[in-house]
UniProtKB/TrEMBL annotation:
Keywords: DNA-binding, Transcription, Transcription regulation. InterPro entries: Homeodomain-like_sf, HTH-type_TetR-like_transc_reg, HTH_TetR, Tet_transcr_reg_TetR-rel_C_sf. It holds the Pfam family TetR_N. The lineage of its organism: Bacteria, Bacillati, Actinomycetota, Actinomycetes, Pseudonocardiales. One of its GO terms (molecular function) is transcription cis-regulatory region binding. Signal peptide: none annotated. Gene3D superfamilies: Tetracycline Repressor, domain 2. It comes from Prauserella marina. This is DNA-binding transcriptional regulator, AcrR family.
Length: 210
């Protein structure tokens, strides 16, 4: 093992050099966004020569996509477990799902915002999501709704794709409103107000009495 590699892995946790590079890039991404993620900066932070990155990744985009996926997993791990179908009430569980989604999107927005003009990284990130064992939150939300429908706690005819789209969409809107704030005279609802309103609409709809 070279002195540089030995220095990079001196934490002694048994991580491979590839994992060390991903963890380093994830830490830099989390602390300073994507602007500072140059090959030279990542290599310096990781304690390796610049060319070492290309021994483990096809290019910088693959490393950043891997770091981005690791960042999302870290954020999700800190949010705790989602409710299981059939436990508690559907209303309480939907509140938990929506609160989870809003917190997750708020935490990862800075990283994704810096990649809007780098579609190749986002494409690599999507590929990594498909390869991971843990499905993204959208699929887990749909799985939860389907399980509740199978248990008879949601209507058999319920359009679950539409319900999931509403829940996920309000997470996107709520986070984007921090980037493009509403005018002062029409403030966007936040936090508990959003959760209460969306859950009520998902469960009860908006049609008046016939």
């Amino acid at each position: 093992m070279s002195p540089r590699k030995a220095a990079a892995l001196r934490n002694g946790d048994g991580a491979s050099l590839r994992e060390h590079l991903i963890a380093t890039a994830e830490r830099m991404l989390s602390n300073g966004g994507t602007a500072a993620l140059t090959v030279r900066a990542i290599a310096k932070e990781a304690g390796v020569a610049d060319g070492v990155l290309y021994n483990h990744f096809a290019d910088k985009e693959e490393l950043i996509a891997s770091a981005l996926r690791a960042h999302v997993r870290t954020v999700e791990a800190g949010l705790g477990a989602l409710p299981e179908p059939g436990t508690g009430t559907v209303e309480r569980n939907l509140r938990a799902q929506l609160a989870y989604g809003m917190a997750m999107h708020a935490a990862i927005l800075p990283a994704f915002a810096g990649l809007i003009d780098r579609p190749s990284v986002l494409s690599r990130f999507a590929e990594r999501q498909d390869q991971d064992g843990e499905p993204p939150w959208k699929e887990r939300l749909l799985g939860y709704l389907r399980a509740e429908r199978d248990l008879g706690r949601l209507a058999a005819h319920a359009d679950l794709d539409a319900a999931a789209a509403m829940i996920i969409g309000v997470c996107h809107e709520n986070v984007l409103s921090t980037v493009f704030p509403s005018a002062p005279e029409t403030p966007a609802p936040k936090g508990k107000d959003v959760v209460d309103g969306v859950v009520a609409v998902v469960l009860d709809g908006i049609r008046g009495e016939r």
